[in-house]
Write a structure and sequence with these properties.
The chain is α/β, with parallel strands linked by helices. Helices cover about 45% and strands about 20% of the residues. The chain has 2 domains: about 45-135 and about 265-330, Bordetella uptake gene, domain 1 (D-Maltodextrin-Binding Protein, domain 2, 3-Layer(aba) Sandwich), CATH 3.40.190.150; about 140-235, D-Maltodextrin-Binding Protein, domain 2. Strands 1, 2, 3, 4, 5, 6, 7, 8, 9 and 10 form a 10-stranded mixed β-sheet that branches. It starts with 10 loop residues before the first helix and ends in a 5-residue tail after the last helix.
Amino acid sequence: MSFNAGSKFTRRKFIKTTSAVAAGIAAPSILSVHSALAAFPDRPIKIVVANTPGGPSDLVGRMITGAIQQATGKAIVIENIGGGGGNIGMANVARAEPDGYTLLLCTNVVSVNPALYNKVPYDLHKDFVGVCELATSPSTWAIKSELPVKTMKEFVAYARANPDKVNISSPPIGTVSFIATELLKLRENLPKLQNVVFKGGGDALQALLSGTVQMCSGSLPPAAAHIKAGTLRCLAVTGENRWPDLPDVPTMAEAGYKDFVLSVDTALLAPAKTPPEAIKWIETETLKILREPATKEKLFNAGFEVRPTGAAAAWERVTKEMNMFKTILEQAGIPKL
């Protein structure tokens, strides 16, 4: 086709025509993209819990996902991928398609492991983004009620006076309760105080109940009933605030230990490059559920306090804790695994 001045089909008309055609072709594509985003999620969302069923993150995950499903009608499933101190499950999500349909429900372990292992199969800064925080639970410092001490400082004095007779039990290396014990030893210069590590929090608590150790550094849920019954005495909790059900138990700050907040925190992370629209949907719906009184009560009864903060706050805490845990482990001389 030629374009001369006398032609009725001028260059200007051609441009207008082709632009209109192009717009007509592009419009359905744009609409389909927006439609797809608006429809998220249009298939089940998988939340990977990087440990076996029954742990803190698994418990929190199942409570929250059930409530979100009921509220939205969208399918959300929990998949437990344990092993390797959580590294296997975390690597699974780091390598997943970043489409919003695979998420990680993690504890502080995601921040601990880079300092604890010689090599981890993920790069926290490069492989993940924050979605939201979920809930937190403090560790407890529990002793048998007959032990003649009533405060953390009194326990330290007792341990110093009986260096070969006082031990503390804790869950596995890398857990918050284990790290809390190592931090206490550092702060109080107690190199002879043995941190006796058990395969789980229940075993660590049982060691205290049976008299094998003199103190247990462990999570709140298994210890709470014994503390309320008077079998155990809780000297302090490691949370930011006193636990509502234990109003007479001080925080570590109140017990004389500044900057000693080490709780089991849970958060949702997504693979890097996950569409912001998908993250926003998950963040919004999760925070709605966390603010529901019924959810708060259910989690509190299980030993958790909701922490309904969004993606930015979740990411800030997770990444900030990497340096904190690295410093503690290095100063404590904990060898890498």
